[in-house]
Each structure stands twice: as structure tokens, then as C-alpha cells.
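hey can u check if this looks right to u? its 572 residues, i copy pasted from the old doc so theres a chance i mangled smth
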Amino acid sequence: MGLKLASTLAIMFLFALIYAVVFTIGVWFLPGNLFGLLIMIALTILIVLFQYGMGPVFINWMYRIEWMEYEDFTYKYPHLADAVDKVVAIREIKPPRMGIIHDFNPQTFSYGWSKNTAKIVITDGIFHYLDENEQRAVVAHELGHIVHNDFILMTVVFAIPLILLTIARWSFYAVRFSGFRRSKDDDAGSYIAIALIVVAVVSYISYYIGYLISLVVSRIREYFADQHAAELTENPNYLSTALIKIAYGLLASGTEAEIKEKQKSSMRGLRGLGIFDPKKARDLAVQTMDSNGKLSKYAVEAAAGWDLFNPWAKYFQTFSTLPLPAKRIQRLNEQCATYGVPIEYDFSEARKIKEYQEGKSMAGEFITDLFVSKLPTIVFVILIAFSAVWIFGFLGFLPIGTLTTINNIILLWAIGFFVMGIGVIGRTSFMYRSGFEPNNVVELITTINVSPVRPKPSIIEGVIVGKGIAGYWLSEDLYFQDNTGLMYIDYRFGFRLMDFWWALRRADQLVGQKVRIQGWYRRGPNPYFQVDKIWTESGKSFRNYSKHMTYISAVLFFIIGAFLFYLWFTVL
């Protein structure tokens, strides 16, 4: 599921570059006539079709996938082949091609041109962490996308906003570069220019609305695929527990005695790294499981509490192609009565857990987070607004004659750039706070009051089990496991070339190694741990300078501010 989103974003980025080049050429050579607009729309559609046609080819290039003959797949994974064969027989489609990515990041995804040319890819992590019923559920989910022809449907859905954006941009540049406004006496040209401006505004608004609608459609298709999984397995709980393991990283299997022994062995292996008290960590982990070796209701509901009650969850849901895991589980729970099975995790106590942790409302923290993250932007907008007021004399009760001078404008912006620099430093201090304390995955996942801006500084110990995007050879991120669960490790350096170098030279080498990681636990919308420093069992250490990179913009703001002060002083 995460792989599907990552591959989609990578392909979208590549074709966005093509679109930008084609559009620039079209605007430069074909402005100001209807034929030019038709050419631009045609080129946009061709790019969409090219993306649709080449997308699967690019995925084959970008991911390390081992393809299996269907007979071998049937022999090795008969429980999954039964599910595939059932759908193939009922829907009268060709069996999808099955691929394996040798990575313990538990993910599945499907892609292709149509339901008869589809491919399903499964990582080793699915077989390692999920039981057979859960494995059938996630494969059934991907089969749902295939039989519903989501490859074609979503291509069309996302193409419509792109065409509207093309119309908006062409209309804007047609007015800017054509001769419609060159003559003050040309009334017809003026009317056409006004009409094009109206078309540009309406088209851009329509594009934005259309884009949001396309995201809603994408989320609905995920619900339909979930429903297909419930129908095929005849138990919605199988996909629910799979989502809990994949999306939240919470793991449990076996009897309580087996779990305790497994944790004891794991902690003995990690004790040499010298951070955790093994007994404390073991006791805390056992509390997240019931006597049957299943995840405790408290752990699951606390993990889902972020999706259900943190305002950031609603923010991310609006702009996401995927529903939040808790929302998907709630939809699956609604289907349990149809199949006569009890709901395994109903989230009935989630609100009480959230109120116990954070109180009635989290709106104050959300507003604070937004203000801190957008502080330099807010200052910049205020500068623009004040400049407009002074230049155009919108405040008639002020002595505009003395205010609208170049000296005052320069002084205003000089002060503003210094304030923006201070804002960047304040934002960095807030987002990259110190106070690192030993933690584990369960403790982090069950913390509700975190966000991309408000982290929980922590130190975690465990093993790197895979890449952040399984099978993707340019993935700089990692996937981590301790004795309580799984966590996505974000190695965001802040400079793309360094990320590229890390992906090629370091990320693969860390897979399978025991590590201690210092960094910041964040959530938005999925849980992740941003690296500050990594220590390996062999004694090597790796530092991430993403925090320090943020100060570059502050330095630039201070330099610009100092230059403007100098300019103001010399002009004065």
C-alpha cells in the first residue's frame, strides 16, 4: 500500500517534469489563439496516456522485483493462490503476474494497464509478520483494485484536473504574452483579455476543486478494495489486523509465554548497545498484549487515537490518496455483522484514552503547530500586505505622503527579513527539540499528541529489517524493528544529492544490522522516526544534518536583512 503510493508519486514527478517542459514550449510559441489551447490540451492528454502506458515499465525498472511463474507461486503459497484463483474464475480474467520483493518492510501493491495485464507484488515482510489469513486479506485487497479497473479509472480521474490546470495556465499566459492589451483603443482586445482572465480564474478554481474530488475518489476506491477483501475472506477482521501491523507497526503472535521468551532473547541481543533496561522494556511490551498473544485493545486504540482525534489527521486526510488506517478499520467493522463475526477492535475506548492523555481538545496544539511551521511565511505575507497598503494608500487616515517613501519600504523589509530569520530559528528549536530519552515502538505509536511539527525526541534500539520503500533502489529511508513493533525511519538530510548518495552507498549496507537511533518521532499521517544519529553494532556512526540544514535559510534571511539595512542607511 505504501509502495503503491511511493511508486505513484515517483512516476508523477517524472511526468510533471515532462509536462512543465511541454507547457513552457506551448506557452512560448502558441499563446493567444484557440488553436494553441487545443494543442496544449491535446499534449496534456498525450502526456497522461504516455504516463499510463509507461508507468508499469518504470516500476519494473525502479524496483527490485523477483517474478514468479504462476505454477511456482501456487506451489509455494497455496493459500494465496486459492484467493487469486477464486477471483480469476468468478471475474473471468487472466491471473495477475506475481512478484516478490526481498525486503522485510511489510507491503503489497498492484499495477498494470488493465485487469488482464495486472501484476501483484508482495514483500517478504508480509509473509514474515502477517499470518495466512491476513496475507490472504491484503492480496484480496489488491485483487479488488484489479477487478474494479482502478488503473484506468484513476488515470481518467486525475487527468481531468490536469486539463483544467492547462486551460487556466494557457488563459493566463495568453493575456500576458498576446497582443490583447497592447492598444488602449482596442475594445475588442480588452474584452477578450478580461474574458480570458475570468476563464483562467474559474479554471484554476475548478482545477483545485477537481483535484480534491479526485483524492476523494481515490480514497473511495480504497474502501471498495477493502470491501472486496472482506467479501473474499468472509471476515473483515483479517484485513483490519493486517492494517494494524502494516500501518501502525504493532506486532504480536504466539502465547504469552512464547512472547516473553522471544522478547527476552531479543533484549539479550540488544543489551550490548547499552541503552535500555531489558526488564522495563519487556514488562512494558507485555502490557500491550493480551494472554492469547494478541495485541491488547489499549495499544491498538491508542495508536488509532491519532487518526481519530488529532486535528492533523483531518488535515492530512483532505490531501491524501489513501484513507487513514483507523477510518478503514471502522468501515471494515461495519461489515462484520454481514459475515456473522464479532468485531475484533472497535475503538470504543479510544476517546477516553485520548482524553486521558491530552484532555478534551487538541485544537490549541494544532494552531500552535501551524503558526510555528508557517511563521516565516506569515511574516512575508504581512510584509507584502503592508507594502501594498503603503504604496497604494489604502489607509487614508495615515499620512501616506511620509510613509510611502523608498526609505520606509526598505526599512520595513530589512526588519522583516531579520524577523523571518528569527522565526526560522524558533521553528527549528520547536521542531528539533532536545531531551532524547530511551523509548520503543509501542510507546511512540501510542502517543497521540505528536505531529510533523511537534515531535517526541527519543532513542530506539533494534534491527534495520528493510528499506523505507521496499525494493526501490533509490530509497534512502529504512525500516526498523524492536521487540515491540515496526517503525519507518526517515533519513531526510535536507539536500537531495546527499539523500541520493546515502541511498546508493549506505542504506543497503545497514539492512540486517542492529542499531541505536537517536531522533524525533513524528506522525503525519503515518508514524515515522526522523534520524539525528545512527550507531551500529560494529561501532560505526552516521550523523544526519537535516536540523542544521534548516539554519541555511535563516542565514540567508539575515544576510538579505543586513544588506537592506545597509541600503536603507546609505539611501537615508
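Residues 303 and 446 are 5 Å apart (CA to CA).
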